[in-house]
Structure formats: structure tokens, C-alpha cells
Amino acid sequence: MKHLTNLVLALILVSGFMSVVSAQTLKERIDEAKVVKVYFSNSDIVHRPNTNAVGTQQKGTGCTMFTETTPLPAEYIDAVNGIIDLLNKGFNTTAFVAGDISVVPKISAGMLKGTSDWVTLGEPLVFVVSTTGGYVVTNMGLMGAVALENSFAMESTLGVIALKDGKAKSLESKQLVWQASPSVKTQKCDDYAYFTQNFPANSLAEVFKTKFIENTNEFIDKQMKKYEKEMKKKK
After folding, report:
1. Residues 216-230, buried b or exposed e (16+ Cβ, 10 A)?
2. Rounded to an integer, what distance in angstroms lies between the CA atom of residue 94 and that of residue 91?
């Protein structure tokens, strides 16, 4: 899931290399910003054949990644778009609106090349929801044996980024959904037609939506508790 990997990498690097933003609760930042855009990065469903399994003891599958992709079904897009209402209600505000990720500049060089350039964008606070899916192939064989299993997985991640003194900082990064279908054993490397027939793209939509709402509300509740605690200190 390349797009999600890039988002998480960018958030980690931004957090690690940019200056620390002064201590404020997220609710205070939202109220201060007055308008907070939520940017949606919705990526196609891609093949993830785990060819190298770098950094793990798990064997690679030996399968070649097929190039066909499946557009993200509307059910998932509708579910993630619902985060704006959840955020406005949970944070007791009207600040959240949808942003257009296609107009966000890209960083042209360095470790973050190709990722979104939030500094150039110039918005004091942004929320980013990145969603994608994968046709996953895993080698479960032991002692050099090959035992392939296929599955379908969906993932959605929330990132919160703030600007301070011309620099960006990752405030929050939370996985809202990671859901996989039951796996199916297979004797060979299967093609795109096999996956689309056996793993319908909208088959995880219902559980995806449920988890997305639950985890978004959990995130909001956690932030509001921090805010209420700080407000009590100031009384």
C-alpha cells in the first residue's frame, strides 16, 4: 500500500525533523484555526505479493506484482467522507470542511520527495485521511516450503499536521481501519481475474465503515478529554 506507506513515512519524518509546536490541545488548535480542511487520499486497490519480505523471517511468495488495479468503490469513499460530520460533531465545531488534495503541492527533492508539501500550502492545521486496499499474497510455508495464502485487505489512516514558524509537525497519526478478509490457500501465483472474482472490492465495506466510525470517535473522545483536563487546570 504505497500511498499509506508514504503518508506514514512523511508524518514520522516531519515529526522527527521539524521543530516542536508549543503545547496546545488539538481542540484549542481547531478553535484557533477556525477553518480546518480534511484532505482525502483515496488510492486504488493494488496487488501486494510480498515478494521480498524485507525485515521479517517470513518467506517471500515469489509472485510477480500484477499491474492491474481496482478503483476504490464508492462505499469506502462515502464512509471516509463522513469523517467531516464526525469531527464537527465530536469537537463541537463547524470548522471542518473538505479540502482538495489535487491542489496540494508536492515536495520536489530530499527524503520527503513526492509527498505533500504542507509548508508551502500554508494552512495552520490540516487533517489527512489516506485510504487504500490490497490483494495480499502471503507465504505461510515453514522450513523453506511454499504455502501461499491470498486475502483482501483495506486500510485507512488519519494524520494531523500543524504549521509553526514556517515548519510542519505531525501532531497525530492514527490507523482508523485495518481489516482483512479470511485468507484462501492457493497452489500458485494467481492473477487479477482470480482476485476480483474471489474477493469483491466492496466485500469489506460494512465492517470498514463500522470500524472507521468507532475509531474516529475514539480518537475524538481522547482529544476532548485532554482538552477538558486542560480547561479545568485554567479555572
Report:
1. beebbeebbeebeee
2. 9
Cα–Cα dist 58/130, whole Å: 27
- Residue for grid cell 520536489: 108
| pLDDT 10s digits, 120-149 | 999 999 999 999 999 999 988 776 677 899
Three-state SS string across the chain, please?
CHHHHHHHHHHHHHHHHCCCCCCCCHHHHHHHHCCEEEEEEEEEEEEECCCCCCCCCCCCCCCCCCCCCECCCHHHHHHHHCHHHHHHHHCCCCCEEECCHHHCCECCCCCCCCCECHHHHCCCEEEEEEEEEEEEEEECCCCCCCCEEEEEEEEEEEEEEEEECCEEEEEEEEEEEEEECCCEEECCCCCHHHHHHHCCCCCCHHHHHHHHHHHHHHHHHHHHHHHHHHHHHHC
pTM (predicted TM-score): 0.86
Domain residue limits, the chain: 2-45+69-134+152-234
Question: Other CB atoms closer than 10 Å to residue 119's CB: what's the count?
Answer: 16
Mean pLDDT lowest for which of 53-57, 140-144, 170-174, 176-180? 53-57
